[in-house]
Design the sequence.
């Protein structure tokens, strides 16, 4: 633009300021720069001043902003005032652009636009350099380089000495500005059910940073830009949108995106005056779901909500209602929740398994949002639903891992969790969900860690499969163990000597995570036997199942230097192994001959220099056998761990590892390790799991290569593991076996830095001091031991065993020495004990009435003093002998150890399918044709209609589906020739109908197989996450880690009651608003609701969280002929209406008229149009704030007091708490809002008390006594249960006085009748007391109270 034009524009802006913003600029001048640095300009003012100037600002915002800010600097101000760096920020644009509506062809790029939405994510505010000052290290000249968002720019050469550096950034001379990145997502009220909210990233700087938080509803004005996407080092043709924010304001009006017209208001008022308004509202909630009128009424009241009260002292009483549905499968919980989400003016729907990285609340997460891996604050469902409804299905399940996670089963198998889900679904009870499925009644046992750190066998009660969320968290240990899971998936962490739970996204580098020391073999009692103790029979598969040792060897060799070849076009199939070592070639031939009953060959043409030879076994049946045993068709990094090998015996597993190590392994005598190399991480991860079964620990490391594939190394380094490897696995190759012998003989367990006990210094110090040891007496060099106790170093397991052995020897010696004092000890004996246990004269004198001087003076002379000293020493030795080493023993000898976290990354979900090519080959086996198009061919065949009637139709069907005439003949019990003649018409037959049925049956069988294989292929291509429910322990061993599957929901407690979420991590301290109602659904633990068990024991939510719900409904499915008949008619009618409507829309020739369709549809349509109902609710919440009448107050008060009076007796339970009183107030206010009434009338209070009473009868009654008991929900333990626990504990205490070894369990059970308890209940309560640590077993079968 010409200079004159620039001056004109600047003058225009100056005149604009004089006309419109004289006072605002004066105020800015007074407050600049510390209190205010921006002038906010309304677009309307600019438009009124000069329409062209305003439109230019929209079309060329960056240029026009420069002129506007230059005008601000030139504006008439006192001489001592300068606005040199003040900003001009435009706001109040006339129209907002929908985030999902941003399009290139609409010319939005580079323009000033306004968007509205909710802040989903925000980084911390950080300094950003705008002009970097570079100081030349040679001459000191300063060079100033402006910085942009395109990367950090450095000077090419010094402006002084003209040399190319070196340079140092001078931070004092550089200029910085505060910066922040936001992710703004479409507001929920602007969406319809099922729409995925879109988002836009916004960069903001300087004084508008730090002003908004995740969960805030905002209007943001800024300039839209595009940025090229980079994939690795390559640039993509796809570009991302982002915005440079100019101004941002918080919109706190409720439902600002709802457009309610005057006509809408008239319709709303007319509806509110209907006598049957409540019935109409109920009829508008999920009309396709029959019944549940009370639950639907409660949902309506939740949508309208009570009134949020603000008291004069600033405190706040929530008006939002929280409601929980607990129900049997197939009762419509999910559909009702989904329907409410669709009609709520503002709502967020999520499943516990499909939650974002922030879960249901909020979280500080570390990912690439912003520049590089940094922490940002992300809002979860409760925050995003602020002032609306958070609809959460599957509230009881929240933590998952990816499908390639290798689970260690108690029968010795290692299987991917996705495959376990498929196996379980074949025979289990499957409940389909909108985003996955629950599979119950499964036959699986896994290894799991109990409270004492022991690995035990426990059953899996359910398997869960869900669509993967948009982001996952990958946690990798320094030794290579890795797990990809949902962000809120907890890990067991050793923190300051205690086991704690920490979510994946909250883990830090350096945290110590629990891993199994080894995978045990199975004991008869469900406990664990050390895997290194030998190949016990319990570890062997039964009934001849599993891969045998010969096939396992073949798989190992092929996984190393071999592969499967499968050339369908040439008809060439088989397996081959290539190596230079004659021992290995011969061993592969031996194993292949035994596995395939075929003669391997060594083609002379494949001999190469250096002695390289190839052994082949040709034949499709042999290639298929290897593929069926878990091999893949790929090579190098496409190889995978063949999980069926884990079904074999220990000998078979050892054979697999041995063959793989022989072909791809190396013994490094200088480093003292065994190393196996492969391009496939999956292969080595599975092998590592097999090695754990032999007590062999290993590290998995990656070696990145600039050219070619990365290589992974599985390395065995510690002395114990090397010895176990030699004993149970070994090498076939003589050279490697001899090297291994030398490495094992030279191995020193002291040098390991992997198998250490972290942060155990305090436990060592406590034990040592109690044992009265000096540091030099603890089995180690005094200097080394001091480092472990002081925390300067972590003690290795090898050295810790020596320390513990010394400590246990001391216990034994102390007990023996104490016994020696029973006889009259000599002064010489007393002197030895004094020095052995480092007892000073002052300690001997303490509490004896004898002075230290007397002991010194009379030592060795007076018998009376000797008796005094003896008794004092006896007391000291008793304390030493009673030193508790259990914690130290658990650390040293437990079934678990620890690995340090190396990295925590946010990653996108990916398919975990390893064998897609194998399954495509299987399709080709069924129907023929090229593999490249076999999926499409299979789908075409499945889309075909039924088999035709004529002979030619039947022949065509056989050809199309690859069915042989012999198969048809077998069904008809005739010869193939006969079928051929029937089909050609060579002979007539009266069995043509039989022929047609036989052909149709064969075609149907082929179709079923095609569907199965196709489903498996397509299922594998879709990213999923999985979870196992393991009762009691809530964890399982997988990927060489102890994987936890329960989470801490304490943040939800705050969200539901205080309606805010606090986050404090990584320097981020924030409190986010969560002023919403929660509508949740949960499944009973055991599949179906049991009305005779307390609710707290039936869902996987802690009582403290359950108690936060105002209403809890049990949605049950109990057979009732009359109800079932009405339900059946309703479902049939609903489906019939859908059939008519679909046919009318899809077929032009439909015989049904629109009037007929409307007549049938009207019976199942909502009484109030859903869009009008949304507006009705929004209008009521905006404009209606009812107050209580005296009659309403009396009804609620009388109900509450009357119910409470039932608990007035001394032995009666507390029937209800004040929480229910507040719930009744909220419900009655919501009831008044439904009528748009300014007062809460008696009918509203009656409606509220009826709903609360119904809920209490459902869930607030002790099933044993039939009485109302608030503690059933509040604490999860009813008064009758508490009394029973107290009584059984008292009985144990009484009986243990009668027996030296404690109360015999059988005696306690026999006498349980004395306290009115049958033996079965008594046994349950004893187990609960054991779990809580209130009783213990001093001896097998005996109990003592603590």
Sequence:
């Amino acid at each position: 633009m010409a200079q004159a034009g620039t001056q004109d524009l600047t003058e225009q802006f100056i005149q604009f300021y004089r006309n419109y913003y004289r006072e605002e600029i004066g105020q800015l001048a007074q407050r600049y720069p510390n209190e205010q640095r921006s002038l906010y300009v309304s677009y309307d003012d600019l438009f009124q001043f000069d329409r062209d100037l305003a439109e230019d600002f929209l079309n060329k915002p960056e240029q026009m902003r420069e002129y506007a800010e230059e005008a601000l600097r030139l504006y008439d101000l006192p001489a001592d005032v300068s606005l040199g760096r003040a900003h001009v920020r435009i706001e109040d644009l006339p129209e907002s652009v929908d985030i999902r509506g941003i399009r290139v062809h609409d010319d939005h790029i580079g323009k000033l636009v306004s968007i509205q939405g909710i802040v989903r994510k925000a980084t911390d505010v950080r300094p950003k350099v705008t002009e970097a000052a570079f100081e030349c290290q040679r001459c000191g000249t300063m060079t100033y380089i402006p910085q942009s968002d395109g990367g950090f720019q450095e000077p090419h050469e010094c402006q002084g000495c003209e040399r190319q550096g070196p340079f140092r950034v001078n931070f004092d001379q550089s200029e910085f500005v505060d910066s922040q990145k936001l992710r703004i997502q479409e507001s929920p009220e602007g969406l319809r059910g099922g729409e995925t909210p879109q988002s836009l990233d916004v960069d903001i700087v300087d004084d508008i940073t730090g002003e908004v938080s995740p969960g805030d509803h905002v209007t943001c004005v800024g300039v839209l830009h595009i940025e090229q996407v980079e994939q690795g080092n390559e640039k993509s043709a796809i570009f991302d949108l982002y915005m440079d924010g100019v101004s941002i304001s918080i919109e706190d009006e409720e439902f600002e995106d709802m457009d309610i017209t005057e006509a809408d208001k008239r319709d709303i008022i007319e509806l509110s005056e209907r006598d049957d308004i409540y019935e109409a509202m109920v009829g508008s909630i999920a009309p396709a779901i029959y019944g549940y009128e009370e639950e639907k009424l409660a949902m309506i009241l939740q949508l309208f909500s009570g009134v949020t009260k603000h008291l004069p002292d600033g405190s706040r009483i929530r008006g939002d209602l929280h409601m929980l549905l607990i129900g049997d499968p197939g009762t419509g919980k999910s559909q009702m929740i989904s329907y409410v989400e669709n009609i709520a003016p503002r709502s967020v729907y999520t499943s516990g398994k499909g939650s974002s990285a922030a879960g249901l609340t909020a979280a500080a997460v570390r990912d690439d949002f912003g520049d590089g891996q940094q922490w940002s604050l992300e809002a979860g469902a409760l925050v995003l639903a602020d002032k609306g409804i958070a609809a959460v299905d599957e509230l009881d399940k929240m933590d998952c891992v990816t499908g390639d996670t290798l689970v260690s089963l108690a029968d010795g198998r290692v299987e991917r969790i996705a495959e376990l889900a498929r196996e379980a679904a074949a025979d289990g009870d499957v409940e389909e969900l909108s985003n996955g499925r629950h599979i119950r009644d499964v036959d699986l046992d896994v290894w799991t860690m109990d409270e004492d750190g022991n690995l035990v066998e426990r059953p899996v009660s359910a398997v869960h499969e869900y669509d993967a969320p948009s982001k996952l968290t990958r946690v990798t240990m320094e030794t290579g163990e890795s797990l990809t899971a949902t962000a809120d998936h907890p890990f067991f962490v050793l923190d300051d000597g205690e086991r704690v739970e920490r979510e994946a996204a909250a883990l830090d580098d350096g945290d110590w995570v629990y891993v199994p020391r080894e995978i045990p073999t199975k004991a008869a009692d469900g406990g664990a036997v050390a895997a290194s103790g030998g190949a016990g029979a319990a570890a062997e598969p039964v009934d001849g199942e599993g891969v045998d040792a010969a096939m396992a060897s073949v798989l190992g060799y092929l996984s190393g230097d071999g592969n499967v070849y499968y050339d369908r076009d040439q008809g060439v199939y088989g397996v081959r192994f290539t190596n230079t070592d004659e021992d290995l070639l011969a061993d592969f031939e031996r194993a292949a001959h035994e596995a395939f009953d075929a003669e391997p060959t060594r083609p002379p043409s494949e001999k190469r220099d250096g002695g390289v030879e190839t052994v082949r076994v040709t034949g499709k049946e042999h290639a298929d056998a290897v593929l069926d045993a878990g091999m893949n068709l790929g090579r190098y990094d496409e190889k995978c761990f063949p999980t069926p090998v884990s079904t074999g015996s220990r000998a078979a597993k050892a054979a697999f590892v041995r063959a793989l190590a022989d072909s791809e392994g190396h013994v490094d005598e200088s480093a003292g390790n065994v190393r196996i190399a492969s391009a496939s991480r999956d292969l080595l991860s599975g092998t590592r799991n097999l090695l754990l079964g032999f007590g062999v620990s290993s590290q998995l490391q990656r070696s990145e290569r600039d050219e070619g594939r990365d290589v992974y190394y599985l390395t065995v380094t510690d002395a114990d593991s090397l010895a176990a490897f030699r004993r149970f696995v070994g090498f076939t190759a003589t050279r490697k076996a001899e090297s291994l012998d030398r490495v094992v003989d030279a191995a020193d367990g002291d040098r390991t830095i992997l198998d250490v006990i972290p942060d155990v210094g305090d436990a060592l110090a406590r034990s040592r001091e109690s044992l009265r040891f000096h540091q030099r007496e603890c089995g180690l060099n005094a200097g080394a031991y001091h480092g472990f106790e002081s925390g300067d170093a972590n003690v290795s397991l090898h050295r810790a065993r020596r320390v513990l052995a010394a400590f246990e020897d001391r216990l034994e010696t102390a007990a023996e020495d104490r016994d020696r004092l029973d006889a009259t000890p000599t002064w010489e004996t007393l002197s030895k004990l004094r020095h052995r246990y480092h007892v000073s004269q002052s300690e001997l004198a303490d509490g004896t009435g004898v002075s230290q001087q007397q002991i010194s003076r009379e030592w060795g002379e007076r018998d009376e003093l000797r008796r005094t000293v003896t008794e004092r020493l006896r007391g000291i030795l008793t304390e030493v002998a009673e030193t508790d080493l259990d914690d130290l023993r658990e650390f040293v000898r437990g079934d678990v150890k620890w690995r340090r976290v190396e990295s925590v990354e946010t990653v996108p979900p990916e398919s975990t399918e390893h064998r897609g090519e194998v399954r495509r080959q299987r399709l080709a086996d069924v129907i023929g044709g090229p593999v490249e198009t076999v999926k499409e061919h299979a789908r075409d065949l499945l889309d075909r209609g039924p088999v035709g009637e004529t002979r030619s139709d039947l022949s065509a069907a056989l050809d199309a589906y690859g069915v042989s005439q012999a198969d048809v003949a077998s069904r008809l019990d005739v010869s193939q020739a006969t079928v051929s003649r029937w089909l050609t018409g060579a002979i007539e037959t009266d069995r043509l109908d039989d022929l047609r049925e036989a052909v149709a049956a064969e075609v149907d069988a082929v179709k079923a197989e095609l569907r199965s294989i196709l489903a498996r292929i397509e299922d594998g291509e879709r990213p999923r996450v999985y979870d196992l429910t393991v009762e009691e322990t809530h964890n399982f061993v997988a990927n060489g880690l102890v994987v936890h599957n329960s989470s801490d929901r304490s943040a939800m407690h705050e969200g539901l009651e205080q309606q805010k979420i606090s986050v404090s991590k990584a320097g981020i301290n924030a409190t986010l608003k969560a002023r919403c109602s929660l509508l949740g659904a949960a499944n009973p633990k055991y599949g179906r609701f049991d009305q005779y068990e307390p609710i707290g024991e039936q869902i996987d939510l802690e009582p403290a969280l359950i108690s936060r719900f105002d209403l809890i409904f049990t949605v049950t499915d109990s057979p009732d002929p009359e109800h079932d008949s009405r339900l059946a008619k309703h479902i049939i009618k609903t489906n019939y209406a859908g059939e008519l409507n679909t046919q009318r829309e899809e077929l032009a020739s439909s015989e049904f008229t629109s009037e007929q369709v409307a007549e049938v549809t009207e019976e199942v349509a909502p009484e109030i149009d859903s869009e009008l109902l949304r507006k009705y609710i929004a209008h009521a919440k905006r404009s209606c704030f009812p107050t209580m009448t005296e009659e309403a107050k009396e009804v609620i008060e009388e109900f509450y007091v009357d119910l409470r009076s039932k608990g007035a007796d001394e032995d009666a339970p507390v029937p209800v708490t004040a929480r229910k009183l507040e719930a009744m107030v909220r419900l009655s206010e919501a009831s008044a809002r439904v009528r748009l009434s300014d007062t809460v009338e008696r009918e509203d209070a009656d409606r509220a008390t009826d709903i609360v009473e119904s809920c209490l009868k459902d869930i607030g009654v002790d099933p044993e006594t039939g009485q109302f008991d608030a503690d059933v929900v509040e604490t999860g333990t009813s008064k009758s249960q508490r009394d029973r626990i107290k009584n059984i504990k008292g009985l144990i205490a009484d009986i243990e006085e009668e027996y030296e070894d404690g109360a015999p369990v059988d005696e306690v059970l026999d006498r349980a009748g004395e306290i009115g308890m049958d033996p079965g209940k008594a046994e349950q309560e004893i187990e609960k007391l054991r779990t809580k640590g209130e009783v213990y077993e001093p001896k097998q079968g005996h109990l003592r109270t603590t």
Remarks:
- Residues 353-357, 523-528, 532-544 have pLDDT under 50 and may be disordered.
- The longest strand covers residues 234-250.
- The CA atoms of residues 76 and 792 lie 66 Å apart.
